[in-house]
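The instructor's notes for this session suggest beginning with a concrete chain rather than abstract definitions. Hand out the sequence below and ask the class to guess, before any prediction is shown, which regions might be ordered.
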Amino acid sequence: MSSSYVTSSGPKIRYALFGITTLIFILSLLLNLLLPGFGYDSTGFINLWIHVFIGLNMLIYYPPAIYFALKNRRSRFDQAGGEVAVGVLITVSWLACVIFQLIFTSWELCDDPDSGFYTGEEGCQAGAIALSVLFLLNLLIHFGWTTWIIVLVHKRSNNKKERDEVYKISTHVLVRGGSRQIEHGKISDGDEEGLYNLRS
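After discussion, reveal the predicted structure:
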């Protein structure tokens, strides 16, 4: 890979996204469990299980992806196409959380004694709004992350066949830099054995 295209900003942004989304996820989960009226029955219970689903996806994907990036190793587990698939899955899950939480907030279930969420505590409705904001933030970050990877793939390919090949490249290599076309030859300079070389 030509050194003129290699950049350190892409990997740093990706590492930051791993960290930021993990922190926001943990905060969202804790609020969902600890704030009055949440995590139980109806909407809160549904959001709790969506959280569990998202957490499992992050737990399965994040640690190996970070490991392979730090070690600069190629793996089928860390292909750009896989990161897009995980990103879409998590984005759609956060969208579901946003929808359910907006329903919760707009219906003011905290103030309805028959809703199953009524607690008589002032923090309930404020908590519902805070969770709505956090869920929306998660949604926007994951959507932006996934869109970023897709845009990089399209910038480095001219047709569907080339895009299919770029999607097989390690995400770490993709975000580190490349060119707009694929040279159909294996990289032989030790950068990433077995990956398609990128050229301008």
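Then share the key points. The chain has one domain: 3-199. The beta strands are 181-186, 196-199.
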